Amino acid sequence: DVEALHARAAARREAVVTEEMLQDLPEPVRRYLLYTGIVGKPFVSTVYLEQKGAMHPSAQGAWVPLEAEEHYTVDPPGFVWDVTLRKGLLPLARGRDMYAGGKGSMLIKAGSLFTVVDSRGEEMDQGSMVRCLSEMIWFPTAFLGENVSFEEVGENSARVTLADSGRSVTGTLYFDEEGLFQDFVAKRYRMAKDGYELETWSTPVYEYGELAGLRLPVRGGAVWKLAEGDLEYADITITSL
Fold it and tell me: Which end of the chain has fewer CB atoms surrounding its CB within 10 Å, N or C?
């Protein structure tokens, strides 16, 4: 999957980011990108990162430790996420979440052997693409791509749209007054008992730090904003990028 992802990747733009490239962006987005430190840095084409953390599938479930690695391409946008959930030294499950070629898919195997989830289709395409957009915060030069557009909606927020393979997804980015990214909120399909439900999804940032010479989020969560209350189901720390 990773080899196929990289085979689609376009060559990196032979340029560095300049402050002039940010002039026409909405003010909160311009302030955010200046804060990250991308001015003077090269455009990114591929990304590899490692993660640790915990997640749980339901409000009643226990938190389960995880380790993961993720590969991204910027043009075209895509990712492959390889995660292992553990109990002590024992692997409880292995998962692969992916967006590539305009298609999303999720595969989960119990004990790395028995398939418990193998999901594809239009809802997965949309959900995986929204995830791809939300995680561009770890390689912010991607926000300067021709397939990304913005609309200012407040002093500290902006709507962002990513286009790919004849589809587009939109979310809202929230920042503080200094330019630190704080949250991404969007409508995203969630797997439910009877199929999929379109729900509000949020990825708040808990900690900032330095990764690959940039000021970036190093720890964040994933939250479903459900009618019965918030369901925080992931807490992830980036250990290398």
Answer: N
CA 23/CA 145 separation, integer angstroms: 15
Answer yes or no: are the C-beta atoms of 147 and 77 closer than 8 Å: yes
Structure token pair of residue 78: 């895509």
Q: Are strands 229-240 and 114-120 parallel, antiparallel or unpaired?
A: unpaired
**CA end-to-end distance (rounded Å), the chain:** 20
Mean pLDDT, 10 residues at a time, the chain of 241 residues: 94 91 97 98 97 82 92 97 85 90 92 74 96 98 97 96 97 97 97 88 98 97 94 96 98
Cα–Cα distance measured from residue 229 to residue 212, given in angstroms and rounded to the nearest whole number: 36
Q: What are phi and psi of 8, to 5 degrees?
A: -85, -15
- DSSP tag of 25: S
Q: Strand, coil or helix: what is 72?
A: strand
Q: Are 79 and 137 in contact (CB under 8 A)?
A: no
Q: Residue 140: its pLDDT value, please?
A: 98
- Measured between alpha carbons, how far is 32 from 12 in angstroms, rounded to an integer? 23
Please give the pLDDT value at position 112.
61
How far apart CA 56 and CA 83 sit, in angstroms, is: 13
Cα angle, residue 240 at apex, residues 238 and 241 outer, rounded to 5°: 95
- Count of CB atoms situated within 10 Å of the CB of 26: 19
| Token pair for 200 | 């509000």
**Secondary structure of residue 220 in the 3-state scheme:** strand
**Burial bucket for residue 197 (CB in 10 Å: 0-12, 13-18, 19+):** middle
